[in-house]
Design brief:
The structure is a homooctamer. Chain A is an alpha/beta fold. Chain A has two domains: about 30-110, no CATH class; about 120-245, 3-Layer(aba) Sandwich (Rossmann fold), CATH 3.40.50. Chain A is built from eleven helices and eleven strands. Helix content of chain A is about 40%, strand content about 20%. Chain A is globular and about 65 Å long. In chain A, helix 6 (about 130-145) runs parallel beside helix 11. Chains D and E meet through helix 8, strand 11 and helix 11 of D and helix 8, strand 11 and helix 11 of E.
Chain lengths: ~250, ~250, ~250, ~250, ~250, ~250, ~250, ~250
């Protein structure tokens, strides 16, 4: 329950625009539209300039279209659709001005803002196979107004690849460290930098990697300080959190 | 071994209609018909007005048809088939009067009874992707004679969506709370209501959701009282249990 | 957020007793007292005749005493303390009128009400070692105003022990089925009765019982309808839920 | 290293037919033929009248044919091929006299012997979906010379179905109890009979059945005596073990 | 429900000694005595010459004494108490003629019968640390009337230790193979013999042995035929099952 | 390898103060002192005003004293010792000016700085038992120069307790959300605020909480954006990360 | 960071060819080429005569081609591509001189060197289904300059098959022991030889083999000395490690 | 079965010193002495100059003494006892010339040989808490005739600590890399060296380290080549394997 909304409702009660009994049942019903299969917030962008996000998995092409149209109708100017398969993207493109990032599986409607964060977000991966998750993080961060530096295939099996990029890493405001298999990259980066490091384990690997569990546990147990972790393959979550940190009002 | 049946057998022995030795081997053989691949109870509907249920998974189209026909032949007037794939439903429709709920993957033969329970059953989901499991629960409850209120996409990431439906939730006789990912919805509902809450974890999610395990553990460990849990994706079980609770003879 | 409380707050705003801005920060602050280490609800008993419950684990003797005294000071007449070790109970007894159920590890302050539920709650266990969990469930149910029938050591290894109690089981309003090891008792009872069955896996067993996991999985996968499950060893949760079901207003 | 074979080798050394140095490198090389991808025993049938078994999984159609032909060439008169897919069976049938049990996924070359065991082997399943595993067990036992009684769909959710077959179960020399989901059937049968019970968990189920793990744990923790367990879905292993037990030389 | 008992009850009904209604509630109540905390069968020894077994874990010293006295009062002449700690044994010895096997943690009251099985039971262990479980199995088998051959510390790390005992192993009627750590002993024995092999994983080991899980999985996946498995550390279960197999009426 | 240090070494090589061959073996040897059992950094405080941290677990009292003395000798003015047991703290106090936080199990040598972060860090817990972990986080943050707001026992089972503190939560620069059992608190807070939320699962709970795993999975799968997670019970890690975020140079 | 490379960089700094500031950002940038999706080392073969390895999984056909071409352009004369699917191999063959090992799923460009190791590497498998992993190990070892002896289908279910190859095993410099299911082969070999044994668990098996976990645990817990383990199905890793051991400079 | 021994037995048969029938039952009985609870090899030291190893866990003080005395009586001059608790060591010291390494929990009887391996074995640990496991590895290697270099507390959280020891690591013949928590040290070392790296996960850590499982998985999934892994905390196994590798006859 958002602070502003709640105050709004309470104000109406005081003004007698609404009775307490009705208020209870109507509390918070304003800010979203009920499509039956989904409930949309229509006020976020206006309030904070942040794009609306649609999580594409488990939604049909028709449901996604329906949600997008309702958002556009309410004046939303930037929409981010994650986990959007190529075919669904192709279908949506026929009727809506969608830009599609194939590797990231992200679709965008609207214009990506100029970077307006504090510093740069570094997105690093252990290997080539981690790139799709990394692109989900990177594109998410870009759409949310961040400058992103991509450092791909810098895993610890060839330490010099990582060390050659030391300047980029040390200058970062936030590092998103993405790795499958044993996930050691995150600990190593955590030991090199002093900014927040967000670990994203990926399901890359085989056998006892258990689809990302080995990397997840490795990152959770990192002995380096300043490291926290999001769900396996959750590039979006990492990009979103990095953006919040990169947009905080800081010390004077 | 049902009480009535056992008494029946015992009565026959007393009357000399059957010898004790024969009784042992024949004990309970009356109430079901053996199709070879399945053993059917033919007496339940007559006795209690409850539909017969066929669990569709792992049964061939021919086996399902065979079971349905044997049931109809015995006078069963309402049959509920769960986990019924679209193709099997289409095939059965050609020879039998089946009504098919596609989202719920449930097929019905016969007429759904008027709601005759104590109150309403609320079926709530955390997200859009949980709807198929929710529909399995809701349709099951409806076929068993309950009024169902559907509250979909009210997960805790947007608390106001749930709070806006507070009246429905508080008025429920039973709440079925269905959620994947972290399953927090169930704890939150459990903390708001005073009626029984049945948690249904779903396999919706990715990575460390482990196909419903995260939600399952979350619900089992709910610190709210009045919560119990059924198997992952077990919409039918939740709907069935909710119906039993909603049909109990209560205090005067 | 309880319905009545919320209405109360809203009413005050309307009457001008409180400004919307203040209301937000004070919303819900009335109904509980902040002891620093715990926040107490002081209004539940008055409203619903239900005892206040203190979960004893992880609380020091001093903390428990402090909570009890604050409750008594507010007029609470019945207090239930679960997971209360013998030594703590002995210490509390010195200054407070505590009655202690040693096997159940439950302490009671106040008078247990007369049974006022719809029917009887059966508490069944697979073996002798499950009795502590069973007593936690049984005493909880009794304190909440239920008549309890105890059927202990009726596990499926000796089927006749269970069948000899068939009448008790069939007459139950709710059955709490408590078992460790393989937990088959719950499925068997679920196949015999038509009322709700609450499965409580216990940590009794060794080796691959994995401290209750085998029983938990067994119960979650029960092929019998009407079964739901609570956490391993959660006798209190089962007793509480059974009491809610046994006190529902029923069909006319 | 079989006793008879070892004595044979040793005898040859003593007779000077072979030097000790050579014996070491040749020890045991006689009894099998090396096809490169597999090493065949060619002496078992002659010695004990037991069919040779080919485990079909992971072997190509050509490999299976090669093994069968080498066996036939050596005079093997009965061959059992497990986990044989329909297509491979069809292909083999073109050149070899194979009889195929489709549900059991077993192919047989040669004539099934008359039952020559001590008593009967009962193969019981909890549900209809467990039948393929049950047929693997039953056909295996039949090919090895046993009379088999099939009791399918007698799970504990409808106890009377099992009790109606009590005579069959009590008369068994060995019971193979096959169940998925919660696997309670095995404990219940273990509590009813006094002969060895072999539990076979199946991967039937969903959600927290974890592809047979719930049933496996349930059976391993059975509180009934006389129960042991084989791997999930291992119908062959159960049928083979049951046959050994049913062919033991017994007390006079 | 035992066949003989059931026939007995049914006979009484026929004779009019009992009404069907009463029969239902009294069905099977005769054969056991209810001590409150336990329900005792008093008829087994008379019927089959088999000792009564008390599972000591989770029972207080007083409960065990109570059960033993009730059994002796009914004429039971041989009682086996498993998982009996030394201190409890010492206390019981003061008033009852108990013989205590310290390594096996088994107490016996009465006289161990002469071996009357078909052949010998071999109890083999991988290491020295597995001996307590092995002794539980061996003593159980001896009390049940079997000749037992103990082969301890014959693990596969020193293959010649096992091979030196080949004659004993090949002559066995049943082999109980007990091992912790990787449990390979069971597969190796399974590959050497043609009799039933009962695997008992033990909780011996450290790290990734996971208290017996590594050995359990190893045994369940044994590629040798004729192997089945009981719970981790379940020496009693293995001894009991081996005895059943060793006492079967065999082929003429 | 810190940027400044590396540049330093490289500069020396260029100046001819050190040969390349020697440089390699001496690279980075300056900044720490080798105590044999530990390698100390002696330059951090001087460079950045950050206290040195000693992780107390697995270190003997003598080792901790040795490390502290070496640090003080080098001029370190603020030392934080985590996971310090009471007894060790008492012993250290005898010779060193240690201040000990018993609940947090943290020892401090030196003076805690004035808060100099951007905003406030909120530390919230689900229950009373989570307080030790919360205090570890809170004291860590305070020692690192942050203002901390403690909100304890605000779990979702009583939603109004959390909502009553809404203002504190919404005003936070970072929220550390600490919960055991099902960990739903973190998702709910994540759905209410727009700042970074650091989830700390605790090992509080029993049965299927699996010592924090249920809470960990719940938090990793949170459907709320802006949430990341640290290891179970890792209060220090959360406090440290929160401090980094709260001290970032922000947008102008 | 390789010793030689580091010295090289340091030398350049000393010679004034590069400033320290530039050196830091350029440190290690020479030895690899950045293709965007991958970073290639171009100096290894020249230095050590070792082939460059491309891990094929998760790389597109175009990416693999790009990497190969860049390597050839730099003068790399031997390239090993692992986990290369047949179709990708066929496509690459059209433009590049690739030799493809279908069973091993390995592609080679260049000429395989003559064996130049200390002794022979034995690659042994438990069954026929383990052969693909074994071939990955064997071909890897051959490409790296080793003589390989293949012993396939020598699992412990038929001990004489293994014993017949005793001479080969005892003569090995290293044994790679590859097995699925229960993985007992590795312990047995470990008990027979005195050279290093590398265990490779395979995902062969079903049910509780859990795709290689049973074999992995079995091997990790091997009671035989000299055994170590690599990841499930990691034939390449085993072949590579065996080659290192087989090429060590040994005692004089 | 050792090659030399087998040849010996076979030779005796050929010479007529033993009949084949007797040979089978006596095969391999010579080389060990049966103490009842353990079977001792008495020929290893004489043949290969390797100390006899006693695994202390799970053996009583009396058993260890008995084994040591039997070994000394047979002329064994060097005995290594692992996992030997301080108290047992103190007791043994009273009658036997034992030298005890307290941190390593290893007892030695006899004189440690001069290092006679190819090169040096580096034993590296991530932290201070890993030292006991490291000492078990280091002392084992020393007793087996190796020069050991200890690098403790060089974990990746402070990369410069590891890099400062680069020369030692690069010069190693074998590296034993020991780490708990996330175990990243092993991957990093594997990426720096070209010799075999043996990873030893330790049970150091808390929460989701799961007593070494996180480190174990991390090491198994290492993307660096040349890495293999032993059981959690298995310092002995690592030291033993490293010694074998360090004593191999090498290329000319």
């Amino acid at each position: 329950m958002n602070k502003t909304e709640t105050l709004d409702i309470l104000q109406k009660i005081k003004n007698g625009d609404i009775s307490p009994e009705d208020a209870l049942s109507k509390l918070c019903t304003q800010p979203f539209e009920d499509l039956g299969y989904a409930k949309l917030d229509h006020h976020r962008e206006l309030r904070k300039g942040i794009p609306e996000v649609i999580y594409g998995t488990g939604k049909s092409q028709e449901q996604i279209k329906g949600i997008v149209k309702a958002m556009l109708a309410k004046g939303q100017s930037l929409i981010l659709i994650t986990r959007l398969p190529l075919e669904t993207a192709e279908a949506i493109k026929k009727t809506l001005p969608l830009y599609y990032y194939e590797t990231a599986q992200i679709g965008i409607i609207g214009e990506i803002p100029k970077p307006n964060g504090i510093g740069k977000i570094v997105v690093a991966t252990g290997g080539t196979s981690d790139i799709p998750v990394a692109e989900e993080a990177a594109v998410t961060a870009e759409v949310l107004g961040n400058e992103v530096v991509r450092l791909y295939d810098v895993g610890v099996a060839g330490m010099h690849r990582l060390l050659s990029k030391l300047n980029d890493i040390i200058d970062a405001q936030v590092v998103i460290s993405i790795a499958g298999m044993e996930g050691a990259l995150t600990s190593v980066i955590g030991g090199l930098v002093e900014c927040p490091v967000i670990g994203v384990p990926t399901s890359v690997g085989y056998g006892s990697s258990f689809k990302g569990v080995a990397a997840l546990l490795s990152m959770l147990n990192s002995c380096a300080s300043g490291v926290s972790v999001v769900n396996i393959d959750n590039g979006f979550g990492a990009g979103y959190l990095a953006s919040i940190i990169n947009h905080q009002k800081g010390v004077k």
